[in-house]
Amino acid sequence: MNENLIAYLIAYLIGAVPFGLLFGLLFGGINIKKSGSKSIGATNVLRVIKQSNPALAKKLAILTVVFDALKGVIPILVGKFIFELDIATLWAMGVLAVVGHCFSPYLMFEGGKGIATGAGVLACFLPFELIIAVIVWFIAGKVLKISSLASLIALLAMVVSSFIFHYDIPEINTHAPILIIAFIVVYKHMPNIKRLLSGSEGKVI
């Protein structure tokens, strides 16, 4: 089998590991897929476990963010420094890691929203733009207290800043991977967007 295809498969399968679900079950004894938004992401970990153990909820949410981000980082770094894969292959691995997180084969092709894993991927390629997005996310989250809206605003900041500071993405000369990741994230946030428009989206305080 072509080594690129193996790299794509590994990136997808690693990206698909539902750490939020695993941490909730192992440390909180709660299946977050059956509560809250039923997402496997950090926000739902926080929301669900906070009902019974607020202190543990924060720790598990942070742990989930870190491990979901690493799902995007580690395959790319291994591919780059150990297997010396080309940049186009690494970008494709990053996109597939996000696809894996959002459409996990371990969860009947359901999954999370892709924010943390996407951030991990983009940290490998566009760290400056990611820093901007994280700052925007932090400010929006503090002001608006709505996780989904803060994430979508940060995503917009990421895309816009990538065009401003890297109009020609180094070596691949296209924003396609970034736009694909953004499309997936927005698609997975459609239920949140509907609730935002109706004014029924919950806040995380």
From TrEMBL:
It comes from the Bacteria. GO terms for molecular function: acyl-phosphate glycerol-3-phosphate acyltransferase activity. It is found in: Cell membrane. Its main location: membrane. InterPro entries: G3P_acylTferase_PlsY (IPR003811). It is a multi-pass membrane protein. Keywords: Acyltransferase, Cell membrane, Lipid biosynthesis, Lipid metabolism, Membrane, Phospholipid biosynthesis, Phospholipid metabolism, Transferase, Transmembrane, Transmembrane helix. GO terms for biological process: phospholipid biosynthetic process. Its EC number is 2.3.1.275. The chain crosses the membrane at residues 6-30, 60-83, 89-109, 121-140, 146-165, 172-190. It is an enzyme of class 2 (transferase). Pathway: Lipid metabolism; phospholipid metabolism. Pfam families: G3P_acyltransf (PF02660). GO terms for cellular component: plasma membrane. It catalyses: an acyl phosphate + sn-glycerol 3-phosphate = a 1-acyl-sn-glycero-3-phosphate + phosphate. HAMAP family: PlsY. Catalyzes the transfer of an acyl group from acyl-phosphate (acyl-PO(4)) to glycerol-3-phosphate (G3P) to form lysophosphatidic acid (LPA). This enzyme utilizes acyl-phosphate as fatty acyl donor, but not acyl-CoA or acyl-ACP. Probably interacts with PlsX. Belongs to the PlsY family. This is Glycerol-3-phosphate acyltransferase. It comes from Campylobacter devanensis.
